[in-house]
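Crash report, auto-generated. Payload:
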Amino acid sequence: MRKKIVAGNWKMNTTVAKGEELAAAVAEKSKETGETLLVLAPPFTHLTKVADKIKGSQVQLSAQNCAAETSGAYTGEVAASMIADTGAKYCILGHSERREYYGETDATLNKKLEQCYANGLIPIFCVGEKLNDRESENHFNVVKTQLENTVFNLNDEQFGKIIIAYEPVWAIGTGKTASSEQAQEMHAFIRRILTEKFGAKADCTSILYGGSCNPSNAKALFANKDVDGGLIGGASLKVDDFIAIATSF
Ligand code: 13P
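Recovered output after restart:
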């Protein structure tokens, strides 16, 4: 059985105090979300405080990124070991905003994946095509190449832990969601190529959808056989919306 997961990527939003308030409210309401795993990914500055607020609940903590190196003279970077030290168990990697605005390449992401595994962090690894890729019907190729260049380098044990997030770039923060059919089609494609590489283990890999997911569309998206939950941006900043999404299975 695959785990159902709803993860909130807060991106660069909230003060520490607001983040604590939001985390406490999610922890309180997580009693209503059954078996679904809830994950919160606040900014680095909030991690230890959010960890305190979710302690004892079923909510888990994630970072939004980690350094590609272990430690040392890398001004402004945060090591995977430091993230693990806050109590975080997950780390988002390869988000399209990092690829686009910070020039993250597949080579960088391979180093970051290694850092996560070396420090016991579970990667939530993002893939997804841009609008022009979809319009030129190249979306399957783009996603396949992203996976081949990164996730395919993992060993079986590492692969067994990863969470994949399919986030079509054209749907992120745009209010434009992939249709339920588009999401299922891509998720099934991702699972098929992961199965070709890693075998039946890919049956157990949670594949999350991300991109303008909200309480109104989550049910239709999550009803698909290969959609195991969501990676939520904007709607994760509102506790009622986030919990409504988490109860949309
Ligand atoms: P939105 O839900 O705001 O579109 O963001 C999705 C996302 O990028 C989550 O990582």
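Post-recovery validation: The chain has eleven helices and eight strands.
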